[in-house]
């Protein structure tokens, strides 16, 4: 490894009210009430633009480092010394060659963002849940096969992306992420979803496309704030009746499944604006779709709708743009 010569790009956010836009380490230290180590060289002039620092320089003043960017550094492992950055809020290590995240990462008590996508990660620390202040976690485009149960302890997490990995299942503790708003687990090999998923009462956006899902949990519809749901490219043969309870849903994408019918409860989705049903095996849609007054776009290409079914659909939704072919 060439970690001792790798230049690490970071941003010091020190008392923004006092030093807005000031990247100079000397000025940052002064604002934090610290001084440079004694040196015979004269003090450097104020910095006019962003400056790169080595890890050794960073660790001279660890208490003031709030953001650390190590992206695109061809790293195979993270540098030692991360636990000595107690104020670190944002850690970006994406687009490297990391195989593991060291357990020391979980000692970063102030961490709000951890972006480790586009690496070669085989696992994440078992005690990941210690990062109780973490709000954004991005682990997509790795080689992960499972997530630790401690994930459920991330009770501040709002943004979770684990797409393009090798998951066949997700831990039941996922349902403990009561603040989660955005969840993307697309492009995996998920065979089923945990029943606890309906405990995510703050969830607004769910991307579960391109998996191997054959059914959804019976209580999946108990997601009162869900606005966008993408289930394209799975093996679904039916949808649970509870889906009709997702009253906030605006966009529902079901392209490329094995659906032969929709539940009548779909007519309860009064806020639905976009419904995409292409590439299924539908012969007709339930009459209840006529109650979808806000539906602006309906796409039913490459199904098995009879001419009579098409006529009924057109009559039931006169204000909706319908794409049959």
Give an overview of the whole structure.
The protein has helices at 25-31, 55-58, 307-316, and strands spanning 9-11, 67-69, 90-92, 113-115, 136-138, 159-161, 182-184, 205-207, 228-230, 251-253, 274-276, 297-299, 321-323. The chain has 325 residues and is mainly beta. Helix 3 links the parallel strand 12 and strand 13 (321-323).
Strand content: 5-15%
Q: Uncertain segments of ≥5 residues (pLDDT<50)?
A: 1-51
- Proportion in helices: under 10%
End-to-end Cα distance, whole Å, is 56 Å
What's the total number of strands? 13
In DSSP terms, counting alpha (H) and pi (I) runs of 4 or more, how many helices? 3
Shape assignment = elongated
Layout of secondary structure:
Blueprint: E1 9-11, H1 25-31, H2 55-58, E2 67-69, E3 90-92, E4 113-115, E5 136-138, E6 159-161, E7 182-184, E8 205-207, E9 228-230, E10 251-253, E11 274-276, E12 297-299, H3 307-316, E13 321-323
Parallel strand pairs: 2-3, 3-4, 4-5, 5-6, 6-7, 7-8, 8-9, 9-10, 10-11, 11-12, 12-13
Antiparallel strand pairs: 1-2
């Amino acid at each position: 490894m060439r970690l001792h010569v790798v230049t690490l790009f970071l941003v010091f956010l020190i008392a923004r009210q006092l030093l807005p836009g000031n990247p100079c380490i000397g000025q940052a230290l002064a604002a934090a009430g610290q001084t440079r180590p004694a040196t015979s060289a004269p003090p450097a002039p104020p910095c006019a633009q962003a400056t790169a620092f080595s890890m050794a320089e960073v660790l001279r003043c660890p208490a003031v480092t709030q953001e650390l960017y190590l992206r695109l550094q061809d790293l195979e492992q993270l540098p030692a010394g991360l636990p000595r950055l107690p104020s670190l809020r944002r850690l970006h290590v994406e687009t490297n060659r990391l195989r593991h995240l060291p357990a020391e990462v979980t000692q970063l008590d102030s961490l709000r963002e951890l972006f480790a996508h586009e690496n070669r990660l085989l696992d994440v620390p078992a005690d990941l849940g210690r990062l109780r202040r973490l709000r954004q976690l991005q682990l997509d485009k790795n080689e992960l096969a499972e997530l630790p149960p401690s994930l459920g302890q991330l009770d501040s997490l709002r943004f979770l992306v684990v797409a393009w990995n090798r998951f066949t299942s997700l831990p039941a503790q996922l349902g403990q992420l009561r603040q989660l708003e955005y969840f993307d687990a697309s492009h995996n090999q998920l065979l089923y979803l945990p029943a606890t998923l309906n405990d995510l009462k703050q969830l607004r956006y769910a991307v579960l496309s391109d998996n191997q899902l054959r059914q959804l949990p019976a209580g999946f519809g108990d997601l009162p704030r869900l606005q966008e749901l993408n289930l394209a490219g799975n093996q679904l043969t039916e949808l649970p009746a509870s889906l009709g309870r997702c009253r906030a849903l605006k966009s529902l994408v079901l392209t490329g499944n094995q659906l032969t019918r929709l539940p009548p409860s779909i007519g309860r989705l009064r806020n639905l604006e976009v419904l995409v049903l292409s590439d299924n095996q539908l012969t007709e849609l339930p009459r209840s779709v006529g109650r979808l007054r806000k539906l602006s776009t309906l796409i039913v290409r490459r199904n098995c709708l009879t001419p009579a079914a098409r006529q009924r659909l057109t009559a039931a939704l006169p204000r909706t743009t319908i794409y049959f072919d």
